[in-house]
Amino acid sequence: MTYKNFFFSLTLRVLGLLVSLSAIAFGIALKNTHGIIGGSLITLLLLYNLYKLTVKRFVEMDDFFESVKYRDFSRLYREDKGSQDIRKLRHGFNLVNKTIKSIDSERQAQYLYLQKILEMIEIGIIAYNVESGKVLWANDSLMKILDFPSFKNINFVQKRNPKLYDELFETYHSNTTSVTLDKAEKTKVLISDTIFEIEDKSFKLIALQNIEETLNRNESEAWKKLLSVMTHEIMNSIAPITSLAETLQVDIEKSLKNPTAEKLELKDLNAGLITIKKRSEGLMKFAKTYRSLNKVTHINKSSVKARDLFKSISELMKSSMERRNIELLFDLKDNNLELDIDSYLIEQVLINIILNAMDATSKVPNPKIVISTNVDSKGNVEIRVTDNGCGIPSEIMDRIFIPFFSTKKTGSGIGLSLSKQIMLLHGGKIQIQSNVGTGTMVLLIF
């Protein structure tokens, strides 16, 4: 309808121009001065009016396109002034602005909704421009996992931690992969990433899931199941021993009551006793290997000075160290440092670690084990046990905390897994850093 009104106005002016030009032509032909002058004036007036009619609409449209260019859809065009077609044109502009504002509001609501969801989940997510490194979006979970403040460009990570930068942003993980992030406290995460394009720009989306706590929780559940299984196995071992002992007891009692009628077969008695002895020895060996597991179902914390803990360890290990000619050193930076621990269990942890260090240093010259303390930037107390032994091969590092895994011929595979369980009950962590041929450092974080 707007275009019909405009076409009608335009047609009238064009027809008027034809009439005025015809008047000028007749005036020239008839040499009529009044006709020439009158026709010329009317023609000029109609040309000006036609110019205003056309330009006014282009100005309106140019103004609208300018607002679109700068995404200013808040402007309201007046529909109560101007010609009918101008009013309808402005009504159309207002309708377009209203529709775009509605779409933009819906888009912003969806963005906020998505942002809230991504903030609530525990998976760290970051999207950034591949070329410039500018961060498009990152949630708080990512900053918590990386232990970084909020940053606008990934170059910040490169300056703070190059190894972490290479693992996250330089390495492409086509499938979900388990990696250990090299930071102040090593953290095991699942990482996956993908590349996507918006217009002519490439972006990379990375997702990180902290599985350290999940692994610890699953491991704790596995320990409970293990204890249940072990109890079942012990009971299964005791049952036949009890049954055989009762049988032998009945035979002996019958023989004692009636020696003539019920002769006691000494060979059978001896065979039964040998069977009981062998099964008892096996059960004893089993119990000795795994009996320490039931000691970590609960802990009794108390405030213990680090120097007293180290003194106790020194007295316990002194003779063993002297026999094997290993130097045991203690580095206590704060003589009044206190720990809120179950001293019996932590002594057990330290003894397990020191025994492993003794084995690792058995074939190196000038064997040395150093036990030191430290307080990190977060106020966590750390105990470090460092040796100059043979180190742990990288291919078995992921298995050293698995119960019953051992590289020693006489090892039970309980020491480190038990130590980790004790540290988890203390709300702490145990971490190991090792280089083959250089040595190993075991870090207890409280």
From TrEMBL:
Keyword list, A-Z: ATP-binding, Kinase, Membrane, Nucleotide-binding, Transferase, Transmembrane, Transmembrane helix, Two-component regulatory system
One function term, GO molecular function aspect: ATP binding
Ranges annotated as spanning the membrane: 35-51
Stored SUPFAM superfamilies: ATPase domain of HSP90 chaperone/DNA topoisomerase II/histidine kinase (SSF55874)
Enzyme class: transferase
Keyword Kinase: yes
Name listed for the protein in its UniProt record: histidine kinase
Species this chain originates from: Aequorivita aurantiaca
